[in-house]
Amino acid sequence: MSNRALAQHALPKPEVFYDSVRALGFRNPTVIYQLGMWESANLRSRIAKERANLFGLRARSGYLRFDSWMHCLRYMKKLEERRYAAYPHKKKGDYYDFIAWWGYNTGRSYDPREFGFVEIIKKVPPPIY
Question: What does the pLDDT average to over 77-87?
Fold first, then answer.
């Protein structure tokens, strides 16, 4: 067995991932599920497998590494909580506006609708049970 094979993380089935997102209490579990599925290429990307990073989360030094996909999901939940606490337009109730304000995807403010980001992630179907 190669070192590369040893570095692979076990990833969840889509329905387990979706149920976990819902169980953690994200403000919009469907969008978080869609983001994770899109960013991880349906739970098959190299970053997801090697770093258990389902959302392509980065720091200045590069992609973050997690002990498991669940640790990544919990990290994302903490990010959501911290950023939502500072979000000035809570009354709008538009989660896409929130992630635009958050700067998700680029690490800086941008409107995800402008680049077709929302349309892309909306195409990700929920899991089939």
Answer: 93
pLDDT, averaged across the chain: 84
Neighbours of 50 (CB within 10 A): 14
d(CA 52, CA 32): 16
Which of 11, 9, 17, 10 minimizes the C-alpha distance to 128?
17
| 63 bridge partner residues | 58
Answer whether 107's CB lies under 8 Å from 58's CB.
Answer: yes
pLDDT level of residue 116 (50, 70, 90 thresholds): low
For strand 58-59 and strand 62-63, is the pairing parallel, antiparallel, or unpaired? antiparallel
CB 51 within 8 A of CB 66: yes
Mean pLDDT of 110-128: 68
Spatial distance between the Cα atoms of 111 and 42, rounded to a whole number of angstroms: 24
E strand or H helix that includes residue 15: helix 14-24
